[in-house]
Design brief:
Layout (H helix, E strand, L loop, with lengths): L4 E7 L3 E8 L4 E8 L3 H12 L6 E6 L5 H9 L3 E5 L1 H4 L9 H13 L2 H5 L7 H33 L12 H8 L6 H33 L2 H6 L7 H11 L8 H7 L4 E7 L2 E7 L5 H17 L1 H11 L4 H22 L5 H4 L5
Parallel strand pairs: 1-4, 4-5
Antiparallel strand pairs: 1-2, 2-3, 6-7
């Protein structure tokens, strides 16, 4: 049944701008509400659902602060479309205001433009939680490396002997605590860095156990861990970040979702230029595929044979990116069709 009202919402941390269009496309209501707290935000939910839960359709941008809003509407049976901000591209309209943004979202929802060009995947709370665990661990590992670099720099400045191996290992943490530097202030800095390193390592260990447990409980993840160069974290990240692969029309759209397709510049009907990859996609998915490609190029004979002639004419980063895309296509086909993953087939090598 065709909706009677189309609602565009420009959602911010403390302000909610709402524009309501009726089926003819005319503006019924424009309202600016305060949404600094959940209680205030629920006033917007009441306003929207007042038009009839089964007679309205709502569109909102995919932002980090929108999950309470989308969940509240969906729990009440409202049809909510979540739009990709990049594809929505509201900045190209010129002067950008909350009122104009809400109006434009509602207008494009009414014209069904958002369904064709800007609709994005909205993960469930369970999927969102799994992603958060993986992304938080990735971020903490980056912070851990920064702490390690700070400690090594401090010790190198005075040619202080350093423990061998990973500084965050328990035995090395104990060694670092026993070091004394030239002045009290330097020793204080070292102790604080070591405290932070130990705390971060404990957090990483907790998240790693959660990832391993989640990987063991998922048959799809267990199947991917059988592939060359893949462990529980890589497999779970691929599953969590890809989500439901049935939503992709094909392998190229899955590659576009990861930002692993080239930029295309068309200057005429018969003239085009393909440039670097767009990187306008899921960064976490692109990162984990690149890490997988690096491991295969270092350890897998088939991957090395495939890369050898390409490395003679292209930079290794281009070869790694090309391999990452091939791996993504292989995983997509496996998850979509159930076909057994074949690295040789991904690399277009004779079996």
């Amino acid at each position: 049944m065709r909706p009677r009202y189309y609602v565009g919402v420009d959602l911010h941390k403390s302000v909610i701008q709402i524009c309501v269009l009726e089926a003819s496309g005319e503006i019924v209501e424009e309202r600016r509400l305060t949404g600094a707290s959940l209680e205030q935000g629920m006033e917007a939910i009441v306003l929207i659902t007042g038009y009839g839960r089964s007679r309205i359709r709502v569109a909102v941008e995919a932002l980090g602060c929108n999950r309470w809003f989308v969940n509240a509407l969906r729990d009440r049976g409202v049809d909510v479309l979540v739009a990709d901000p990049v594809k929505l591209d509201l900045k190209k309209l010129g002067k950008k205001t909350d009122k104009r943004d809400a109006n434009e979202i509602a207008r494009r929802l009414f014209l069904k433009d958002l369904d064709r060009y800007a609709k994005t995947h909205y993960p469930t709370d369970t999927e969102y939680g799994t992603r958060k665990v993986l992304r938080t661990r990735h971020k903490l590992v980056s912070i851990r490396q920064q702490l390690v670099n700070q400690i090594r720099g401090l010790l190198n400045a005075y040619r202080t002997p350093q423990p061998s191996g990973a500084l965050y290992a328990k035995k090395n943490i104990a060694i670092l605590r026993g070091l004394t530097l030239a002045v009290t202030d330097l020793s204080l800095c070292l102790n604080q860095l070591v405290d932070s390193l130990e705390s971060i390592q404990t957090s990483i260990g907790t998240l790693t156990k959660r990832i391993d447990a989640a990987a063991q409980s998922s048959p799809r993840v267990a199947a991917l861990t059988e592939l060359p160069g893949i462990g529980p974290q890589t497999a779970l990240t691929l599953i969590a970040e890809l989500g439901d692969v049935a939503r992709f029309r094909g392998a190229r759209q899955a590659a576009s979702f990861a930002g692993l397709v080239p930029r295309v510049i068309l200057s005429a009907k018969d003239t085009g230029h393909h440039g670097k990859i767009t990187k306008r996609g899921n960064r976490e998915l692109r990162w984990i595929l690149s890490e997988w490609a690096v491991r295969l190029l270092a350890r897998n004979d088939d991957a090395r044979r495939w890369a050898e002639p390409r490395l003679k004419r292209s930079h290794r980063n281009k070869v790694r990116t090309a391999l990452a895309r091939r791996l993504l296509v292989g995983v997509y086909v496996t998850l979509r069709t159930g076909e057994e993953f074949s690295l040789k087939k991904c690399l277009s090598m004779a079996g």
